[in-house]
Amino acid sequence: MQRRQLIKALTLSASLVTMGMSWSIQAAETIKVGILHSLSGTMAISETSLKDMALMTIDEINAKGGVLGKQLEPVVVDPASNWPLFAERGRQLLTQDKVAVTFGCWTSVSRKSVLPVYEELNGLLFYPVQYEGEELSANVFYTGAAPNQQAIPAVEYLLSEDGGAAKRFFLLGTDYVYPRTTNKILRAFLISKGVAEKDIEEVYTPFGHSDYQTIVANIKKFSAGGKTAVVSTINGDSNVPFYKELANQGLDATDVPVVAFSVGEEELRGIDTKPLVGHLAAWNYFQSVENPVNTEFVKKWKAYATTKGLPNADKAVTNDPMEATYVGIHMWAQAVEKAGTTDVDKVRQALYGQTFAAPSGYTLTMEKNHHLHKPVMIGEVQEDGQFSVVWQTEGPLRAQPWSPYIPGNDQKPDYAVVGN
């Protein structure tokens, strides 16, 4: 009797060991990919779609055989628009989940929060949103725009005859590093173009701010002093009440055009856009651009949204940070294949010079300065919430992470890793 029980126990033990080995082998057959985006809080309006785009892109790569013969396994975490929590969740992804790469963040304050963690642990972060520059890290690849690929060209357009020949500028933003640094650059640029200090106004509001009645009234008052344009670096769900207040006070684009750097098709989905027709946004991609790659991209996204039952799937839209997410994941996958490993140092080297035919209609190249060459487009809001491109560069521009309008930047290193 005891012998039978011993045999059963040994058999069970062997089975458990075999199962454990099987699970280990199965786990080893996937490559974990971190997705670090706010799915709740003030930034969820912008970041949730980036999480979904990342998942769609991973599904697309897996359907074609994965990377290095392995399936990509997404690990999704929600830092909940809480900036210190980004660092905590980033550390979790690297130390506990053992991800090979992370795609995430929107605000610069969230990126600044995780940056020391990724540099300490030699992690790899792909950041898909336009930003203020003044940073270059060996552990970050910036697939959104640097200031010379969005902010500077947009203001140059506003100064031009085609853009309305603005003489006064109201710089309105959310109170954190991206708007403040971007406006520091823009103020210096405007002054270099002959705009007087008295013709530049700067105002900041907290994250989640919702009462724009006084601010819009002040914009109207400021515009009485000459042809005025508003440069908006408002981020997150505060964009909704801001644009509603513009409509409430009858401030339309013919009087005072607003050019936004953080408002795209996704943010406009929840707004009545009819009163906003003519206002502007500056990006590197719009859903409305016409080319075969974008047609297929938009079609895939709409099908994915419907199949997955995403909220308001019948009104699913693409936007610039979604395109940047899509491009970044594909470039990383290409680099891993080239390197033959997910080792961060080897993948970093393999990323330099990678190209990808993007939905923007251009083949984008990853530079050694960890930025993409990108086209710049100015889009005008249409009644259907889409943008009509009214101006664009002839082709992609090389990013300048260090703005020439900040003193001393000509001494900064051009590459993210010295000697790479």
TrEMBL record:
Signal peptide positions on this chain: 1-27
Organism: Pseudomonas flexibilis
Pfam family, one: Peripla_BP_5
UniProt record, GO biological process: amino acid transport
Keyword annotations of the record: Signal
Start and end residues of each stretch annotated as Disordered: 401-420
Protein name from the UniProt record: Amino acid/amide ABC transporter substrate-binding protein, HAAT family
Keyword Signal attached: yes
